[in-house]
Specification:
Number of strands: 10
Radius of gyration: 19 Å
Distance between the termini: 46 Å
Oligomer: single chain
Structural class: alpha/beta
Strand content: 15-25%
Shape: globular
Helix content: 25-40%
């Protein structure tokens, strides 16, 4: 193990210790906010419910509000693309609400790290090393003993998100969270073409060529029996509810629920951050091919902008 990996390992250990020591305080504050949110009849936007404990942004608050607003008999979650699980959409569900869960990641080092975390024996969590494709996703769930009606599915793999969700048929989650590529705007129904070995950092040096537009995900959601209720305030996660479930939020169109992200994560060919912002981000990938849902073919983005 190289010095960088050793330092990374110990940094993550320190992070977990810090999280563990502050967990009671974080949980107390989070649950106080949740109680206030649930008693507030004026809430009508997802952004009003946001708070962060383990999620990247305010997803913890949104998820808590949703799972406390609807009936969920089978308190099971699935999340994939979790890296080492120190930052995730479902960790707070596991530790605060004692849900059962399955997490998947393509790195054996990340899975080993999760299994060495105290949460692995304290809670009913399964962590498996799987590079997810359309060919193995359903078996990954079956082999973990998870099928049928579950509480929540969270998809964030920075690439084939659209194609993987389209393929899933062995679970029927009540809540689905999918990362979308905000750079692609609210109207185009496009996604990166399916590539079973897709890796975001290798697909294009800009780091902006990945995933699907929010309109593409809304189109898929409708076909799979879900409706769209909005995005998180930072504009990277879309929230969908199964059609037979009702929540205190109105159904939204892709345009209504789209949030333009402010991320400046673009990179040059040397891998250095270039801090390109706004619509200029789209120019970085406008010469690349996307699959367009309406025409059902790959098209260079410049041809449809």
């Amino acid at each position: 193990m190289g010095i960088r990996n050793i330092l990374r390992f110990y940094f993550r250990k320190l992070l977990l210790r810090f999280q563990s020591e502050n967990h009671k305080i974080l949980t107390l504050h989070a649950n106080q906010i949740l109680r206030a949110n649930l008693s507030n009849s004026g809430i009508n936007q997802l952004s009003q419910t946001e708070f962060q404990v383990f999620s990247q942004y305010g997803e913890d608050g949104i998820i808590q509000y949703l799972v406390n607003s609807i009936e969920i008999p089978n308190k099971v979650f699935i999340e994939f693309g979790v890296e080492d699980y120190t930052e995730s959409n479902t960790r707070f569900l596991l530790t605060n609400d004692n849900w059962k869960g399955l997490v998947l990641d393509g790195s054996s080092r990340n899975i080993k790290f999760i299994k060495q975390d105290n949460i692995y024996w304290r809670h009913n969590l399964t962590a498996n090393c799987t590079f997810i494709t359309t060919a193995n996703i359903n078996d990954s769930f079956r082999n973990a003993g998870i099928e049928g009606d579950i509480g929540l599915l969270s998809i964030d793999i920075d690439g084939n998100d659209y194609w993987i969700w389209e393929e899933i048929n062995v679970v029927n989650p009540r809540i689905v969270i999918v990362e979308y590529n905000s750079v692609l705007g609210p109207n185009l129904k496009i996604t990166t073409p399916y590539n079973p070995s897709f890796v975001r950092g290798q697909a294009h040096h800009s780091n902006l060529y990945f995933g699907a537009s929010i309109a593409a995900l809304c189109d898929l959601a409708s076909r799979k029996g879900y409706y769209f209720i909005g995005s998180n305030l930072n504009g990277n996660n879309a929230f969908f509810i199964r059609n037979d479930i009702r929540v205190p939020f109105q159904k939204k169109s892709a345009n209504e629920g789209y949030v333009k992200s402010q991320f400046r994560e673009s990179r040059n060919e040397k891998g250095q951050l270039t801090f390109v912002s706004g619509d200029d981000r789209l120019k970085q990938i406008s010469h690349l091919e996307f699959f367009e849902l309406d025409s059902k073919k790959n098209i260079v983005l410049n041809e449809i902008l």
